[in-house]
Design goal:
Largest sheet: 2 strands, antiparallel
Oligomer: single chain
Strand order of the largest sheet: 1-2
Number of helices: 2
Strand content: 5-15%
Shape: elongated
């Protein structure tokens, strides 16, 4: 009885949430997915007043961002 109720629940869920493909007017109709159009302004400036992270320590070695070279960090 439990198995049949699980099957019925799965079938109900499959019919309740069908996937639909919305046709795009500007692209090929055979394309199933395309990235969204982002309308982000191009002249946005950062609003962070201070650096969030300027250095960190690995074991006993301190790495300072934009000062420590990759060769020194290796």
């Amino acid at each position: 009885m439990r198995f049949t109720s699980c099957i019925a629940l799965v079938l109900l869920a499959l019919t309740a949430f069908p996937q639909t493909i919305e046709e795009s007017k500007s692209h090929n109709p055979r394309v199933l997915w395309e990235p969204p159009d982002w309308s982000v302004p191009q002249n946005v400036k950062a609003n962070v007043q201070n650096e969030m992270l300027s250095s960190f320590r690995v074991s006993s070695y301190e790495i300072i961002l934009e000062r420590t070279s990759m060769e020194e960090a290796q």
